[in-house]
Amino acid sequence: MPALTDTFTLSNGVEIPKIGFGTWQIPDGPETYDSVRAALDTGYRHIDTARAYGNEASVGRAVRDSGIPRDEIFITTKCPAEVKDAEGARHAFERSSELLDLGHVDLYLIHAPWPWSDQGSDHRAGNIEVWKVFEELYDAGRTRSIGVSNFQVADLESLLGATTVVPHANQIRWFVGNTQPETTAFCRERDILVEGYSPLATGRLLDNEDIAAIAEKYGKSVAQVSIRYLLQHDVLPLPKSTTPSRIAANADVDFELSADDMAALDALRS
Ligand code: A2P
Description:
Blueprint: H1 2-5, E1 7-9, E2 15-17, E3 21-22, H2 30-42, E4 46-48, H3 56-66, E5 74-79, H4 86-100, E6 107-110, H5 124-139, E7 146-149, H6 153-160, E8 169-173, H7 181-189, E9 193-197, H8 209-218, H9 222-232, E10 236-238, H10 244-249, H11 259-267
Parallel strand pairs: 3-4, 4-5, 5-6, 6-7, 7-8, 8-9, 9-10
Antiparallel strand pairs: 1-2
Helix pairs in contact: 2-3, 3-4, 4-5, 8-9
The protein binds adenosine-2'-5'-diphosphate (A2P).
The site of adenosine-2'-5'-diphosphate has 18 residues, from helix 10.
């Protein structure tokens, strides 16, 4: 399926497969292992995990057991949102590397600008400190690219003003009805790839009748239209499923939504 092997190119020239397999909320152990194996068997070559998901060891084992050459697979992981100092960031990266056991990381992200327990709190200085460690890891080749997640314009501005490497990606919550226009436009202007997590709104879009009416015209499912919608906005979708048939269906998105249907989807509010 071409959508699995087509790539976006990050601002540093690194290629990233256009659809990533999301592993948020998949428990460590057989569930993560089997889902990642199913995704790799289907042809996914981009797996997204995080220290906070607790499933890096199973992701790493699935990738190693797949027998697919390491350089054909793109692995993203994330530094916990609670880590806002240099020593913590170094430690977090080493721990993720150890658990994944895949050599380098392909993309390393700051999971959020603030700890989950204190969303919106000001950690500008801490994020800059963490980012400087990310720059060191990047310069040392430990990770091929670096980025952020859940950053809005003000968070990005403070980082850009005080650091050298512009983030290569920003992973944000992005789906039909929740397209974060200001952050998306800001990223686009600075060549920061936008990655969309929860492209199905963690399943909430699946019974949306407006999307279903569009999907019917193409003989596609609501999930496929919702994922395709991100691609046509140049946003990298990270669908998550533990069901092999859905894992495959979510990558079967080589069709084109018309400009009218894109506009209709743009107008939907969730
Ligand atoms: P499951 O893992 O049981 O397949 P998101 O990608 O927005 O986080 O959404 C993930 C949710 O959507 C999960 O609950 C997943 O369930 C479900 N899901 C993923 N793909 C499909 C699909 N093609 N059809 C129906 N449900 C899906």
